[in-house]
Design a protein that fits this description.
The chain has helices at 2-7, 12-17, 19-52, 58-71, 74-84, 89-92, 97-101, 104-129, 133-141, 146-161, 163-176, 188-199, 204-231. By secondary structure, the protein is an all-alpha fold.
């Protein structure tokens, strides 16, 4: 066993000794990522409806918001919130400073939420706009109001069709969460950087972090594959087997 460990170019014993820190990093990463996805999703639903319905007031506002947050890097957004807002004395003296804006965790959550809300808004807007006209016309014919159509027909249909694209957003958000390590948070990458810096290592911390991210992405992909099989079964192409017929000339 010792000969095998000597052959592996990684200090496995050191990684195992500090693996509890990596587990804490996994918790921080998952907590930030999925809480941001939840809050961003809740914000995206009304904004997507405003975009899809071309509301004369809210549509331009939402469109500007999505352009700003989709057109600038998440790292810049996080730095502006974490380092930028503290430059204003009125914010430092407000009730939001001490419990929220002075905390790296809350600043990261706010930046991640606003960023994923912008992407999810445009994703849902496209799914709503692509709702088959037959479904909408059938809902109108049966007396559904606009609000009832949106709640019972259009949104459920859009959510189902958005599942494949939204899986990419979840994975991108997970990968983007590494930015939290740049503002002192000990996420997965942050623990890897700490391990390398503490013991003057080259890549043990980074390789461990990469493996953990890979396993999490694998679980996310499996989960969305299950969702697709369950909720998009009616959209799957049905393969019909051709039944051989007798040759009349035979």
């Amino acid at each position: 066993m010792e000969a095998l460990l000597d052959f592996i170019p990684l200090d496995i014993a050191l990684i195992a000794e500090n693996f509890d820190r990596f587990l804490y990093g996994v918790w921080t990463t998952l907590n930030l990522t999925f809480l941001a996805l939840l809050l961003g999703g809740l914000l995206a639903i009304p904004m997507a409806i405003a975009r899809a319905s071309a509301h004369p007031v809210f549509n331009p506002l939402v469109q500007t918001y999505t352009y700003v947050f989709r057109g600038t890097p998440l790292l810049v957004q996080t730095y502006l919130i974490y380092y930028g807002v503290g430059q204003f004395e009125v914010i430092r003296e407000s009730f939001l400073w001490d419990p929220i804006l002075s905390s790296a965790w809350w600043c990261a959550l706010i930046a991640f939420t606003l960023n994923t809300a912008a992407y999810t808004t445009e994703l849902l807007r496209g799914a709503i706009a692509d709702t088959p006209k037959g479904e909408v016309e059938a809902a109108i014919a049966t007396g559904h109001s606009y609000r009832s159509r949106m709640r019972r027909i259009i949104l459920p249909s859009a959510f189902r069709r958005a599942i494949p694209a939204y899986s990419n957003e979840v994975i991108f958000m997970l990968h983007g969460s590494v930015i939290a390590s740049t503002i002192t948070l000990q996420d997965i990458l942050g623990v890897g950087r700490w391990l390398n810096g503490r013991y003057y290592l080259a890549y043990e911390g980074f390789i461990t972090a990469a493996v953990l991210y890979f396993l999490i992405v694998l679980c996310i992909a499996w989960a969305f594959r299950w969702f697709e099989r369950r909720y998009l079964r009616h959209l799957a192409t049905r393969q019909t087997t051709a039944v051989p017929t007798a040759d009349p000339a035979a």
